[in-house]
């Protein structure tokens, strides 16, 4: 049973009267004296506070003038701070190196593209007739789908603001938008007959639309990421982490047998894709968090077949026309590039290489065109002063960074990052971003979520492969040792007390918080804490525990007496991170916002009182990766991901 916390919350207020509200993109753009496209970009890239409200089959957006004014003021402060510190923007010119292999013979040639230009290969035996940039028009483009004759491509573009379905002749002509609204469209798939395009709406089910535009029709209410069977008689789609097949009208849905459960339920997408004969479905299974493998699910209900055993970053798969191979995104070589993987076994074959991530591949029915999206991402660790709001960048990489934690003395930072072996490992660096070094690097290991021991001499962390354990590693050297046989998904967010006598974790079953439990690190004995919490963090002296209640309140509890007090009101959005201020008098926390990959940094006094907002931080790579930690000097460190536009490329194959 939970012990009800003492209510010490500030009174509820309504900061957004109706007169303060703007009810469309046009009104928001007019108020900010910018174009609609600019405010769309600001919402995506800079956290412009725009709210979405779904009703019936459509969605609407709105914003409050007060929030826009506060955002504009904060944006000006950040811009001034960047000018003073000389921080450079993220828009850099780049070079792509792409090796496009012939699907049957595997003979390739290298192309170099700088910006939007390219230089063709000159080798006399080249099997590639050309590599063409399809995205020569405005917007960010992804999720291509070729028409049955290979002449047209459907894709997602944000050129009109909200991502929607567009079509274009592959060789020439301007793109045409065929779906509209304020709810983003996802993953269009062309039917084999060419008479419709099936796509998903974010949170709004699966829809069908004529290829030249018209009235969309919902075919599945609860599902997303659909694909159309080769005969046009069925669709496959995702629903709550499971894969289903239904007829073309969405009727008679049945679940396909599932591979092993994910480490984190419902993490990411599986992108189910029919084989050319319609007898199998290929998926990507994020089995260990963001890492996973490719599987084939027979549509007749037989056992799933594992195709890869890499436990690496992946994405949407596609089939070669003969059904003998998959073309898949994989981080096998470091960057996420495209690989050809034989179904019957054998070594995978690299199709693309170079910087950026190659995603969303499709192969034309005649096997002569490989179409895919390329995107450049830069990950960075950014530090923000809580009091002044000034930011500076500590570290930038072209590969993922995540979950930084300050050492007790504030002189070092531990973090997760991709190693030279393409796996997520633990790193330590100095607080100024120098002396970055890997502290775990075994080829078969995946280690995540570091935290420091009280003396700063060791790291505690979760291992998700080959074992699922909570472990400790001395930074003086030697192998790590198991603390407890804990899975990150069930013994969630373990936090070690500074004196290292106990550890507290959230007990989770089927994605639901059950209780908080303490474990004695010497004896291994456990007992239940009276109040169930997420995001548990010990105070620096170990006397208090802060956390998040089931109602998303910030709660502080006395360790010895187990008495708990709610410091904030209940909220409809969860916390993503919680940390103590340097002096231990305040709690800082991040909470989800309407801007998807942006979080709002807020603090509250441990003794209660009004909330203090410190602005929006981000963008983060994904919502679940919104994270921060606070140093003894009240500097907040968080990992951001700056994403360039997605571009469509077509490789013409003999």
Describe this structure in words.
Among the domains are: 6-12 and 378-643, TolB, C-terminal domain (Neuraminidase, 6 Propeller); 19-85, Arc Repressor Mutant, subunit A, CATH 1.10.10. The chain is 6% helix and 47% strand. The protein is built from 3 helices and 55 strands. A 5-stranded mixed beta sheet has the order 1-48-47-46-45, with no helix packed on it. A 4-stranded antiparallel beta sheet has the order 8-55-30-29, with no helix packed on it. Residues 6-17, 53-59 and 80-129 have low confidence and may be disordered.
At a glance:
This protein is mainly β and 654 residues long. The protein contains 3 helices and 55 strands. A hairpin with a 6-residue loop joins strand 10 and strand 11 (164-169).
Question: Mind sketching the topology for me?
Answer:
Elements (H helix, E strand, L loop, with lengths): L5 E2 L13 E2 L2 H8 L3 H11 L4 E5 L2 E7 H21 L9 E7 L6 E7 L2 E3 L8 E6 L7 E6 L5 E6 L6 E6 L6 E2 L7 E6 L6 E5 L3 E5 L7 E4 L3 E5 L5 E6 L2 E6 L6 E2 L17 E2 L5 E9 L2 E8 L6 E2 L11 E2 L5 E9 L1 E8 L6 E2 L6 E7 L5 E7 L1 E9 L5 E7 L3 E6 L5 E7 L5 E7 L6 E2 L7 E7 L5 E8 L3 E6 L6 E4 L6 E6 L5 E8 L2 E9 L5 E4 L4 E5 L5 E5 L5 E5 L5 E3 L8 E6 L5 E7 L6 E7 L6 E6 L11 E2 L4 E9 L3 E7 L1
Parallel strand pairs: 1-48
Antiparallel strand pairs: 2-4, 3-4, 5-6, 6-7, 8-55, 9-10, 10-11, 11-12, 13-14, 14-15, 15-16, 17-18, 18-19, 19-20, 21-22, 22-23, 23-24, 25-26, 26-27, 27-28, 29-30, 30-55, 31-32, 31-54, 33-34, 34-35, 35-36, 37-38, 38-39, 39-40, 41-42, 42-43, 43-44, 45-46, 46-47, 47-48, 49-50, 50-51, 51-52, 53-54
Helix pairs in contact: 1-2
């Amino acid at each position: 049973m939970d012990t009800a916390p003492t209510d010490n919350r500030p009174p509820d207020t309504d900061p957004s009267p109706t007169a303060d509200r703007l009810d469309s993109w046009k009104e928001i753009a007019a108020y900010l004296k910018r174009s609609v496209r600019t405010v769309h970009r600001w919402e995506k890239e800079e956290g412009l506070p725009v709210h979405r409200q779904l009703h019936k089959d459509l969605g609407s957006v709105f914003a409050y003038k007060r929030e826009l004014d506060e955002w504009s003021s904060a944006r000006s402060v950040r811009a001034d701070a960047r000018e003073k510190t000389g921080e450079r923007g993220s828009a850099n010119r780049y070079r792509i190196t792409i090796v496009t292999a012939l699907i049957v013979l595997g003979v390739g040639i290298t192309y170099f593209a700088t910006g939007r230009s390219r230089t063709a290969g000159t080798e006399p035996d080249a099997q590639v007739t050309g590599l063409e940039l399809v995205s020569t028009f405005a917007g960010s483009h992804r999720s291509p789908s070729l028409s049955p004759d290979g002449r047209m491509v459907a894709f997602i573009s944000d050129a009109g603001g909200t991502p929607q379905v567009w079509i274009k002749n592959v060789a020439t002509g301007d793109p045409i938008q065929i779906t509209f609204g304020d709810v983003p469209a996802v993953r269009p798939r062309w039917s084999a007959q060419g008479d419709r395009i099936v796509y998903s709406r974010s949170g709004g089910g699966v829809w069908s639309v004529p290829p030249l535009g018209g009235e969309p029709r919902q075919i599945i209410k609860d599902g997303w990421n659909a694909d159309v069977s080769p005969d046009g008689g069925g669709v496959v789609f995702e629903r709550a982490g499971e894969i289903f097949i239904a007829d073309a009208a969405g009727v008679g849905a049945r679940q396909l047998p599932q591979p092993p459960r994910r480490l984190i339920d419902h993490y990411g997408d599986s992108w189910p894709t029919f084989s050319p004969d319609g007898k199998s479905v290929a998926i990507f299974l994020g089995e260990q968090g963001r890492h996973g493998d490719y599987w084939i699910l027979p549509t007749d209900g037989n056992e799933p077949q594992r195709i890869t055993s890499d436990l690496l970053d992946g994405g949407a798969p596609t089939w070669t026309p003969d059904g003998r191979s998959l073309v898949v995104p994989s981080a096998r070589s470091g960057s996420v590039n495209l690989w050809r993987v034989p179904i019957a076994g054998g070594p995978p074959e690299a199709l693309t290489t170079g910087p950026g991530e190659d995603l969303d591949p499709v192969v034309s029915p005649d096997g002569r065109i490989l179409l895919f999206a390329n995107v450049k991402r830069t990950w960075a660790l950014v530090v923000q002063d809580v009091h002044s709001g000034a930011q500076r960048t500590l570290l930038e990489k072209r590969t993922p960074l995540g979950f930084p934690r300050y050492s007790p003395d504030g002189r070092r930072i531990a973090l997760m990052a991709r190693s030279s072996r393409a796996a997520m490992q633990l790193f330590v660096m100095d607080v100024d971003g120098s002396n970055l070094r890997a502290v775990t690097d075994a080829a078969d290991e995946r280690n995540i979520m570091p935290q420091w021991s009280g003396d700063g001499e060791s790291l505690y962390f979760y291992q998700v492969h080959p074992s699922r354990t909570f472990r400790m590693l001395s930074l003086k050297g030697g192998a790590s040792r198991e603390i407890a046989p804990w899975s990150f998904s069930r013994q969630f967010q373990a936090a070690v007390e500074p004196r290292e006598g106990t550890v507290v974790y959230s007990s989770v079953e089927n994605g639901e918080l059950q209780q908080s439990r303490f474990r004695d690190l010497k004896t291994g004995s456990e007992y239940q804490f009276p109040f169930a919490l997420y995001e548990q963090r010990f105070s620096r002296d170990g006397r208090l525990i802060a956390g998040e209640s089931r109602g998303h309140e910030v709660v502080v509890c006395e360790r010895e007496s187990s008495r708990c007090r709610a410091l904030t009101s209940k909220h409809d959005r969860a916390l993503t991170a919680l940390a103590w201020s340097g002096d231990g008098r305040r709690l800082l926390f991040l909470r989800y916002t309407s801007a998807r990959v942006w979080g709002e940094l807020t603090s509250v006094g441990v003794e209660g009182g009004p909330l203090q907002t410190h602005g929006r931080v981000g963008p983060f790579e994904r919502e679940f990766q919104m994270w921060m930690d606070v140093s003894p000097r009240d500097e907040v460190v968080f990992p951001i991901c700056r994403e360039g536009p997605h571009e469509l490329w077509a490789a013409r194959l003999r």
